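Hi there. Long-time user, first ticket. I'm pasting a complex I've been working with (about 728 residues overall). I'd like to know whether the download I got is complete or cut off, because the file seemed smaller than I expected. Thanks.
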Amino acid sequence: MHYSQLSTPALTVDLESLERNLDRMAQYCREHNLGLRPHTKTHKTPELARMQLSRGAIGLTVAKAGEAEVMAGADPAEILVAFPVYGAEKLRRLAELARARRILISLDSEAAARQLSAAATAQGVEFGVLVEFDAGLGRCGLFPGPDCVRLARTIQKLPALRFRGLLTYPGNIWGTDQERKKESQSVATAVARALAAFDEERLPVEIVSAGSTPSASLSHEIPGVTEIRPGTYVYNDLNTHYQGACSLEDCAARVVATVVSIAVPGRAMIDAGSKTLSSDQLRAGPQGGYGLLVEAPDAPLIKLNEEHGYVDTSNSGRHFQVGDTVTIIPNHVCTCVNLHEEIFLLRSGEVVGSWLVAARGKIR
Amino acid sequence: MHYSQLSTPALTVDLESLERNLDRMAQYCREHNLGLRPHTKTHKTPELARMQLSRGAIGLTVAKAGEAEVMAGADPAEILVAFPVYGAEKLRRLAELARARRILISLDSEAAARQLSAAATAQGVEFGVLVEFDAGLGRCGLFPGPDCVRLARTIQKLPALRFRGLLTYPGNIWGTDQERKKESQSVATAVARALAAFDEERLPVEIVSAGSTPSASLSHEIPGVTEIRPGTYVYNDLNTHYQGACSLEDCAARVVATVVSIAVPGRAMIDAGSKTLSSDQLRAGPQGGYGLLVEAPDAPLIKLNEEHGYVDTSNSGRHFQVGDTVTIIPNHVCTCVNLHEEIFLLRSGEVVGSWLVAARGKIR
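Hi, the file is complete. Here it is re-exported in full:
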């Protein structure tokens, strides 16, 4: 079946682009002796996680206990929960997972560490712990320096926890090549500052985890980083493209939609709205718009309601008709994928299978 | 169990507020002799649809075939699909539903009408049809006038379809009381123009369907409207509140979250981000922000990542600690609910049960 025969809206992935994206990141990490621990929040699909592991990923990253439970199905040796989980019920579930495989968690407070220790002790398991520091984004993480060492020492004293290193999320590396390079230098300074504090106290740091998709290719220029956690690179999206970090052809995940109304002059309405694409704004390149219409880049997707996408056809060379199939590259693929139960697999435009987005909606 | 003991993030609804919201809208419609055909896209929950039907709703409204399949579980006499569905697979499923109950669909093109007729004919069922006209929003719908009559005549000639009336979505009635009243007058002009064209051709119009939550209370002032389709009123949200269409106490659905990090000065990070609240912007009242923290209205939720909410604590009187429970009223409850598998039911702060959000993610 050709993808244009799919019942719409439908999320699709071109397997050839996907495999190219996976290979490229795996090769970069091999070349630079960096561990690749991909963040699975983008795809939420164990089948794809297995493809990452078979290409040499050292483990998987998740944000939530529910994601970890699903990703255990891909059988990684270790799962990193890159989120300061707080709450006994979630930690109990993570401790259960730790019976069969290593679980590593990042945190930045003694309160979280104490709760983690109690959960591990209760079930007779051990958690690895990374201390999170802030490299400029201002989200989570201690200021790089003695505070990090102090928390690491506390972790070392708490039962059933093992301090294994540091983690930061360099989300501030964003924008044009030039902007990303500049911010990358300030991240390098923060990493150096964090490591110096540990060096001074002669406390060994096994892991320094960083990396995101926009910052990935700069990771080898940040001394001390041992591994990275990009997520988006598997599918890519407009935000990645407009930062120059991928080509349009590398945008492997696309939403297939149908034109359902052309009654209002200057409009083609499609059956993909915010419950299909997400309302995430474009944060790079030309501002505005909710995705790129591959068939008509001169017809911007200017507004979304829940189930309606508003295409402005007033300056487009294309003549839209009710029933037309269109293909949209989303602004932000991670929030888009999370809205879909299923992703259809394409080779040369033919549907060759589908995956369940098994971890979608796993918010706890 | 008290709601503060829920594993977070968790979507909750206060049943007392919900029942008050349901009663108020039911009473308004009775008083003004308007049919109430609530849009179930807000709650996506058959149990709640039954509460609406038991309070006198004349049927249910959905946007998608998948929502109709789930809502059939609430056993309404009739389901209105207020979306110009195009696609044989979806119409086949709707035709199957039409064996057991009346299905009514709105559309604005001959192409959609012909496909609908073919689907109904193939399965030996009948669809009721409403012709959609545009009352100023510029989304779907023909210009009110002779074009609507022409499409109605085409529908009358097509096999297995029955023309039953008109539909419009008055999404342009939005904003302050004054803004909404003004726009309501222009919607009234459009309705009058549409009805005049049918009157001239002596074509009877049984149904004139309009109404949304912000416009609901003005519906009786639009001559000709026979029924309304509000959705949001069951739970309400910040967008509704800031238009003056409900009080904060009427915001029945709230997200319970936990403070997970206070490491960065001026920040409290919570475990609810865009995959829990949605990225929908505030479109009424004070601009900016992604929801109201009930416990600290002076601490704005300034930014969301997928699983992180950024609370700006720099001007707040509250002292945030890791582990604190907070409660958020979302900007837009419809997109928020769609992200949750389950909604927890509260009475006086105690969890008394939960509903599955059975139609969430039903995009086809």
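A couple of notes from our side: Chain A touches chain B through 63 residues (CB under 8 Å). Chain A has two domains: 3-10+244-356, 15-233.
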